[in-house]
Amino acid sequence: MKAIGFKTSLPIADAESFIEFQKDIPTPTDQQLLIKIQAISVNPVDYKVRQNSLKDQTADSPKIIGWDAVGTVEAVGPQVSLFKKGDQVFYAGDIKKDGSNQEYQLVEQNIVGFAPKNLSLAESAAMPLTALTAYELLFDRMRLSESRDKGKTILIIGGAGGVGSIAIQMCKKKLGLTVIATASREQSKAWCTKMGADFIVDHNNLLEEMKGIGHEEVDFILDFVDVNQYWEAFVQLIKPQGQIGSISDPTKPVDLKQLKGKSISFHWELMFTRAMFQTADRIKQHEILNTIAKWLEAGEVFSTLNTVLNGFNVENLKEAHRQLESGSTIGKLVIEF
Amino acid sequence: MKAIGFKTSLPIADAESFIEFQKDIPTPTDQQLLIKIQAISVNPVDYKVRQNSLKDQTADSPKIIGWDAVGTVEAVGPQVSLFKKGDQVFYAGDIKKDGSNQEYQLVEQNIVGFAPKNLSLAESAAMPLTALTAYELLFDRMRLSESRDKGKTILIIGGAGGVGSIAIQMCKKKLGLTVIATASREQSKAWCTKMGADFIVDHNNLLEEMKGIGHEEVDFILDFVDVNQYWEAFVQLIKPQGQIGSISDPTKPVDLKQLKGKSISFHWELMFTRAMFQTADRIKQHEILNTIAKWLEAGEVFSTLNTVLNGFNVENLKEAHRQLESGSTIGKLVIEF
Predict the structure, then answer these.
(1) Cα separation of B172 and B199, whole Å?
(2) What percentage of chain A reaches a pLDDT higher than 90?
(3) Rounded CA gap, A128 and A171, in Å?
């Protein structure tokens, strides 16, 4: 089968930044599914791993990344109970294992969901990683609920990105929050409005813009960009007893004590935690994906797909990384096989 | 009326560290209650404010501190709706206002509860600040609930202290958690057991002791001592997807990013937040205190009172601060008027 990977971390413009190669189709064991992949999507974690995981070293065999896919179950391991051959599934996967940049992939059943029935392959492939991230952050980490939190306000930094796009929808449709999203370009502002944001503010002038819309304070903040860059603004904007959630990778320490006077909670979310640590509750990702699929099927939330590239090949994967690295992609980018 | 305060921050051994003086009994306005105080308790915040708030300066009139009291409503402001003259109440108060180290005190009705009916004055006076702190941290910040969290494990740093003592009880009786409390002296270990802790570990050898009791990881950690001192241990001991709550005052930054891989939540709790910021939901403290009173009346939790000094005078207040400053008090210390 065909796979695409890299033996060393290189700039995307380098001829060898991605290389195509052949490998054997593996056999599922234990709780593994063998998936025949139909479409994948690309996330910022992909280029971060490509840029950093094999810096100044060369692997013997190419490293396969990619953590979003839709496909069909081709074979199941002996302990598989949730799926059978032929099921159409979607999943993000496990960062410690080979990713979805290949024609067939092994993945543990507990972190796989049934793909939504009435969406295109590309629409489905766009969702797992970002929807899991937004869901886990809002419901598992912050423990928000419509009954407790309806009517409160949330500021989402990076509203037009992949996670931002689905987070806006969940906050509006599943929690009844007033959603303020950051965006600066006309295209990304229009996208945030389409996702359901009540207000759009420019992150280049955040405090003034928040004042301008009459929300000098918010109950919750989701940071999908850079906790260092916005820290002072967060300290000011967050309401007493508020909550801040982040998925970003701060390079400098943050002064956590600044949040004490207001009794603030700070939450990290990493979608890979459950798989990485093989937590006892990792089947929750199976359940979350099934919930997301139901929401998508019912039209309660909609796919954040924005761009489709046709054909699983090195050029398309390089193009996808180029676009993601630019930092200006809107919604999700999918490669159909 | 008699009040006790200080004009400058002095060591407790100094003759002027506390001074007695007379002031007029004030008149309640708006939503204020005038309380005739019957007993107060002393908390670490008291000596921290005494030691630091008037450093290298001298106030014109003495500063009155103290944030725990039981007493009777002597008069009410024109907008008071929750209480009437004669009601017996307990409360912690507002750090921005005069405290309870005086015979009569004004306090806003929203942060006052009805005192438990079948407890002694001293038993009641021991509870407000610490019970509010533990309740807000567990239920409002961490959003724990018996239905969601029963059977999980919690490590409480500083189990025999005021907040630790009531937190142990709430975790056991109201959340069904397995409680591991830290203590090192025989007396404090016995106290933690009396409060209901399932395991006691010595904080001087935390990681080894946790291993010894077969709990190398816990779902939740409450830090009532020093987040800097235990940070590396917390990073190691906290389970993936766990929560850490703290009321301590770190003097050094903490490396928050160390918690990302496990998707950890970090919560600050400051019992004064609601009153300081006059939050719209501050009547929640009235409700929490009423809940605590019901729990106490029903014997579901019990008072953490351990020491009573008789008589509201400078000597007893100095003795209380001396004991608290030693860092070795167990449970709560109360001064009866």
Answers:
(1) 12
(2) 98
(3) 17
Contact assessment for residue B30 and residue B21, using Cβ atoms and an 8 Å cutoff: no
Point out the residues of chain B with pLDDT beneath 70: none
Residues of A with a Cβ under 8 Å from any B Cβ are 136, 140-143, 239-241, 249-250, 253-257, 259-270, 273-274, 276-277, 279, 281
Name the CA radius of gyration of chain A, rounded. Answer: 20
Mutate to test the interface with B, among A175, A241, A262, A283 (most CBs of B within 10 A): A241
The H or E element spanning position B24 is none
Residue A328 has pLDDT above 90, yes or no: no
Quick count: other Cβ atoms within 10 Å of Cβ B278?
A: 12
Hunting for tokens 């766009």 — which residue is that? A126
Of B140, B266, B281, the CB nearest to A266: B266
| Residue A245 to chain B, least CA–CA distance (Å) | 9
The pLDDT score that the predictor gives to residue A320 is: 98
Q: Give this prediction's pTM.
A: 0.97
Q: Taking residues A161-181, what's their average pLDDT?
A: 98
Q: Given A253, A270, A281, which is nearest B260 (Cβ)? A: A270
Mind telling me how many Å the CA of A214 is from chain B's nearest CA?
17
Nearest by CB to residue A268, choosing from B143, B264, B276, is B264
The pLDDT value recorded for residue B206 is: 97
What's the N-to-C CA distance of chain A in angstroms? Answer: 13
Q: What domains does chain A contain, in order, with CATH numbers?
A: 2-127+273-336 (3.90.180.10), 130-268 (3.40.50.720)
Give dist(CA A67, CA A333) in Å, integer.
13
Strand partners, B305: B332
Q: Are strands B32-42 and B104-108 parallel, antiparallel or unpaired?
A: antiparallel
What per-residue confidence (pLDDT) applies to B96?
Answer: 96
Q: Look up residue B206 and give its two tokens.
A: 């935390």
Helix-strand-coil split of chain B, %, nearest 5: 35, 25, 40
* Whether the Cβ atoms of residue B56 and residue B39 lie closer than 8 Å to each other: no
Q: Does residue A253 surpass a pLDDT of 90?
A: no
Q: Do B263 and A273 touch (CB under 8 A)?
A: yes
Terminal C-alpha separation, chain B: 13
Q: Which of B255, B256, B265 sits opposite A141 (nearest CB)?
A: B265
Q: Which of A137, A217, A260 to mutate to test the interface with B (most CBs of B within 10 A)?
A: A260
Closest-CA distance of chain B to residue A118, Å: 33
Task: Name the DSSP letter for residue A136.
Answer: I
> In angstroms, what separates the C-alpha of B71 from chain A's closest C-alpha?
28
Q: Is the ipTM of this complex over 0.90?
A: yes
Single out the residue of A9, A321, A331 nearest to residue A195, CA to CA: A331
CA distance A63 to A98: 7
d(CA A281, CA A141): 14
